[in-house]
Amino acid sequence: MAKKLYHGAAYYPELWDEKTILTDIRLMKETGINVVRIGEFAWSKMEPIEGEIDLTFFRQIISLLNENGIEVIMCTPTATPPIWMSDNHPERMYVDADGRTMIHGSRQHICTNNPYFRKRAAILTNELAKALGDMPGVIGWQLDNEFKCHVAECMCATCKEQWHKWLEHRYHNVEQLNDAWGTDIWSEYYHHFEQVPQPGPVPFLHNSSLKTMYQLFSTEAIAEFAEEQAAIIREHSQLPITHNSTIMFAVDNERLFQNLDFASFDTYAPAASYFSYLFNCDLWRNLKKGKDFWIMETSPSYSASLESYATPHPKGYLKAEAVASYALGGAGFCYWLWRQQRAGCEQPHGSVISAWGKPTVGYEEVLETEKARIAIEPFITSTRPLQAEVAITYSDRAKIFLNTEPHKGLHYKELITDIYKHTLAAGIHRDLLPEGAELSGYKLLLTPFVPYLSDDYINRAKAFVEQGGVWIVGPMTGGRTEHHTIHTDAALGKLEELAGMETAFTFPIENTGSVGEAYGLTARLGLWSAVFDGKDAKVIGTIKGGLVCGKAFLTEKQLGKGKLVMLGSLPTGEEGSKMLTEMIHTYAREAGVLADIKATEGTIVAPREQDGRKYWIVVNMDGKGGSVTVPQAVRDCITQENIPAGEWKLGKYDYRVLQSI
Fold first, then answer.
1. How far is Cα 25 from Cα 27, in angstroms, rounded to an integer?
2. Does 6 reside within a domain?
3. Which of 98, 153, 196, 229 could hold 218 in an S-S bridge, CB 3.0 to 4.6 Å?
4. How far is CA 192 from CA 171, 196, 483, 484, in A?
5. pLDDT for res 1
């Protein structure tokens, strides 16, 4: 892709007449839109009758956009198969966990594992790549749209057959499966793979291994579908390929992006949840390390459907979102959508232009965002984001384990976001890393809420610690095997020997009167907890009251040049928040984590560099303004003013681009 910052929108020219399309292009140029994403829902436009593919319309649209300086991300339209694919073919349709078969309409109604769907999707993708892949103005590809957004694991007959093959490939023989899953429980023993059911309706709950493995099977299958499409495109086009995902969908994003070229995501976090927005930027930056990510969808003001709507953004927030994303490693900032749809289930959704062609409530904010893009583009395109010194492991596999074992409503996204918020509030620049990421260059690693830790992960983290890093493990980490069973050698398996402690008990500690004491602070303890006997580890946090008074919930042990810290229980409430923040501060200091520029909570500092020279993009995200402290004089790249060392104020949703002098 060209070395520029993209400001774009999803566009659906197949819904509009020629006059409206020409008006839209004129307005895009006036607004500063320099890229559009097209084609993602247009299968029936491309192939209205089975076998009759005509891409003339899209060739004309791409040419027209290119003539007007607007580039294109071309999409495969496989999220919305046409009626000829669905009609009278229930065997091709998605079947949910309750056994209900979907009908035509909405989207994602067909099973993506169905062989006929795969065949027709491959044919259309091949034709798209041949016809459009080398057209001037096309700069990249998006596969499908939001895999597993509205659906999760399919329970159709095709999936059942493929499930059995997947199990055989994984376990080789059924005896190994029986042993790994402990199927003597409740007479669940299987004599051959074809007897293993899908996790459909049952009177109580499924075996944890069955439910977790079926989710893993499903995420692997959708990743393979993405790779199949990508391979077809690459036969005819050298352009980079992505998919627009989120952490909310039933996918494993690390696996999904493994063989794609760049990462992109959709986000509709409201302004009050700006931390969720930043969470995505810090994760997607690291799903394809060293490559710019894209935001393929965000609302210019609010999201809505026939059944819901969100609060519109306050004035100034959209600009802050865009600057933060570019600063944190983004190259594209795109809206859903350009022109409001006049029909369908998302008619009320926020857009840049209304269905009747007038500016919407978010239009002025889009113009302000374009001004900011132009102002920061020279500095963003000539620099690269600096790797953080603090890393938090993010795991979609952990999300799957907690889907199977949610206890009283535990939700992985909420749990991991809370830890992220404490790191953010501490003013620490951070990376969210997938499980397989390299750890070199980091000083502090947090691994919360990951029930199963692979031997590979433990070995890499151990080496990280021995070389001088600090590794904070927990809470709720390491207590399950890869088959979603409980360890039989020690509660937390191999971690315990490494950490020099022993787990005395695991149990739900909240509402038992248990209070944790650490760093001179006290806080109630919560969640499903592991409590420790110190043994060879130093006890940092002790439990007072409740059922296990005197046991430890926080320990540390020197390992090589670094430390392994075990957090067995979650401090809760306002006091718990203070304790977590103090824990992160303490170990960040011990690990030698440094912040060149400090900002108050609600304002972020995104460091970048060029040929050894540092830059910092400072953005206020909470709308309250903030203060920034610089240890030495810096230069404001936009105003060309020198800012002396010390503290200075930043306005509501304001931003600065600073350069070392």
1. 5
2. no
3. 153
4. 12, 8, 18, 21
5. 41
> Quick one: pLDDT at residue 612?
87
Q: Which residues lie closer than 8 Å to 356 by C-beta, 6 or more apart?
A: none
Q: How many Cβ atoms from other residues are within 10 Å of residue 405's Cβ?
A: 18
Q: Report residue 660 CA to chain centroid gap.
A: 32
Query: 3-state class of 43 per DSSP?
Result: helix
The response to whether 149 counts as a known ligand-binding position is: no
Query: Which residues are 539's β-sheet partners?
Result: 555
Domain boundary among 355, 381, 407: 381
- State yes or no: 345 annotated in a binding site: no
Q: Which 3 state secondary structure label does DSSP give 432?
A: strand
Residue 58 contacts residue 40 (beta carbons within 8 Å): no
**Cα dihedral sign, 106-108-111-116:** positive
Establish whether 549 is an annotated binding residue. no
For position 614, which CATH number holds?
Answer: 2.60.40.1180
Q: Which domain holds residue 495?
A: 390-591
Q: Is 255 annotated as a binding residue?
A: no
Q: In which residue ranges of the chain is pLDDT below 50?
A: 1-2
- Active site positions, annotated: 146, 297
Total structural domains within the chain: 4
Task: Give 516's strand partners.
Answer: 523, 543
Going by C-alpha positions, the residue among 21, 8, 128 that lies closest to residue 70 is 8
Mark whether 401 and 525 lie in a shared domain.
Answer: yes
What residue type is assigned to position 356 of the chain? W
How confident is the model at residue 2, as a pLDDT?
A: 46
